[in-house]
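Lecture 7 notes: from sequence to structure.
We start with the chain below.
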Amino acid sequence: MPRAKLALVPLAALQAEISRRQKLLPKLIVQRDNLNRQISELQRLDVAKADEPVAPKAPKKARWHRRAKNKVGLADALAACLKGKGKVTIPEAISPRRSPDLA
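Predicted structure tokens for the same chain:
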């Protein structure tokens, strides 16, 4: 949105805006003072403590999961599943139902 030229803004509108902003001034001063107080507290922190090196944390140990040991290998399981069938779709091949001879 393009800004209006101040020459085109009525004097009453400019005075109303100045008045509105002056009402906000005390609140802004309180915020500024609070921020200055926080900054000075941070600056007063013991510099020696801030300069001490922090001991690095030990890296987390990798959790090793045991690999599943199946009685029958994948190729053998698929061969037994497909035995005697013509075409098998992918969903049929990966279904969680187990063949009775694989149990």
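Points to note: The first helix runs from residue 11 to 43. The mean pLDDT is 80.
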